[in-house]
Design goal:
The chain has about 300 residues and is mostly helical. It has one domain: MetI-like fold (Orthogonal Bundle), CATH 1.10.3720. α4 packs parallel to α7 and α10 runs parallel beside α11. InterPro entries: BP-dependent_transpt_permease, MetI-like, MetI-like_sf, OppC_N.
Length: about 300
């Protein structure tokens, strides 16, 4: 072995070590996620669903939002070359309605997840950092909302709003009002753990104010559990929207929702099962995709699972 070869070997080894050991938690997590098959499959499914929600015309030549595309004479027809998923009770193409129904589910899931993460995360940051009466007031307020079951509370809120005013954004509001306490408790516990670390003590010794300490030092190190929980909750919120629409208090016609489609088709299931089966299948795949995504993110960001 020549001297040049000996010199090159340590260099190659150093590059491999550098590639396998990223410098931060986030780069390390991304390194693991790129090699996680569950994350890749879940991400691919979520990307397709987002494209369906944003550009449904790419997947269906029929505009399901227009009543003129429905033909009552074709009601409850089975699978044909023209109607891949059959037709519903009003003669509307089930396939196109399933495609356009993805929009409501994605909007409700992502919007509710973001709102609860912002509200619960912000209040949890304040409660955990300041403690004392701030912690007492915010914790007791969270416990009041936490005692109400999310689905039952959202059902009551939407019932009071009324069917004539119900819509996707009212569903988001009803779910967000009741779901933020979980995020607050998680963030509060994470902040309490982070603020006792040496880097926070050093920042205080250097004269950093409370705002700078919270934003620059505590938040980046305490937000990981919130990201994991918020990602897992996306599938929960999508399923909750479908349940509320199925019960008749969520999204209302002319909006299209998978839960609404399932509710409309349940009485004629034996006669025409397609209008119920296909929305249920897409709903299950969507919830599964977000759960897979959340599990992969949790595994990548939780040091205990390494």
């Amino acid at each position: 072995m020549t001297n040049a070869t000996v010199t090159q070997e340590p260099a190659k080894h150093a590059k491999r070590v550098k590639a396998k050991k990223p410098a931060s938690l986030w780069s390390d997590a991304w390194y693991d996620l790129r090699r996680n098959k569950i994350f890749l499959i879940g991400s691919a499914l979520v990307l397709i669903l987002i494209l369906m929600a944003a550009f449904p015309s790419l997947f269906s030549p029929i505009d399901a939002t227009k009543a003129a595309t429905c033909d009552l004479a074709q009601a409850r027809k089975g699978i044909t070359s023209e109607h891949w998923f059959g037709t519903d009770n009003l003669g509307c193409d089930t396939y196109s309605r399933v495609i356009y129904g993805a929009r409501v589910s994605i909007i409700v899931g992502i919007a509710t997840g973001v709102i609860t993460a912002v509200i619960g995360g912000g209040l949890g940051l304040l409660a955990g950092f300041y403690g004392r009466w701030t912690d007492v007031v915010l914790s007791r307020l969270a416990e009041m909302f936490f005692a109400i079951p999310v689905i039952l509370g959202a059902l009551l809120i939407l019932a009071m709003i009324g069917r004539d005013k119900a819509g996707a954004w009212f569903v988001v509001m009803a779910l967000a009002i009741l779901a933020w306490p979980m995020i607050l408790r998680i963030m509060r516990a994470s902040v309490i753990s982070a603020k006792s670390q040496d880097y926070v003590t050093a920042a205080r010794a250097l004269g950093a104010g409370p705002g700078r300490i919270m934003i620059r030092h505590i938040l980046p190190n305490a937000i990981t559990p919130v990201i994991v929980t918020a990602t897992l909750n996306l599938g929960v919120f999508i399923a909750a929207e479908a349940g509320l629409s199925f019960l008749g208090v969520g999204v209302q016609p002319p909006e299209i929702s998978w839960g609404l489609m399932i509710g409309d088709a349940r009485n004629r299931f034996l006669e025409a099962p397609e209008p119920l089966i296909f929305p249920a299948v897409f709903l299950s795949i969507t919830v599964l995709a977000f759960v897979m995504l959340g599990d992969a993110v949790r595994d990548a960001l939780d040091p205990k699972l390494r």
